[in-house]
Design goal:
Distance between the termini: 26 Å
Helix content: 25-40%
Strand order of the largest sheet: 2-3-1-4
Number of strands: 4
Oligomer: single chain
Shape: globular
Largest sheet: 4 strands, antiparallel
Number of helices: 3
Structural class: alpha+beta
Strand content: 25-35%
Length: 99
């Protein structure tokens, strides 16, 4: 059972003011490659898993931004940590219809 949800909005500074979309796409590739369950939203992406693993994914996302040319990165992160009862995107979203 997962013990955490981590939502991240990653905002890389681009070298010449170009679009951040290719950078955000790369950040989502890092999440996908990690194998953790995730849900992409319009303003942030939420991941589900063990807190230590999710924080490592956040670290790798930031490192990936630098590796593809961003001089700096601002990441806004929200954490829901519940080692006793677990954390679940499905549980939190169960009462809302899926579009």
């Amino acid at each position: 059972m997962a013990n955490a949800l981590v939502s991240i909005q990653i905002l890389p500074k681009t070298p010449n003011g170009e679009s951040v979309i290719p950078y955000v796409d790369r950040a989502i590739e890092v999440i996908a490659a990690s194998g953790v369950p995730y849900l992409v939203g319009p303003l942030e992406t939420t991941m589900e898993g063990e807190l230590a693993e999710l924080l490592d994914v956040v670290k790798r996302m930031n490192e990936a931004m630098i590796a593809i040319g961003a001089p700096s990165v601002l990441s806004q992160v929200k954490i829901s940590y519940n080692p006793t009862n677990g954390a679940s995107m499905d549980r939190l979203l169960a009462k809302y219809p899926r579009a």
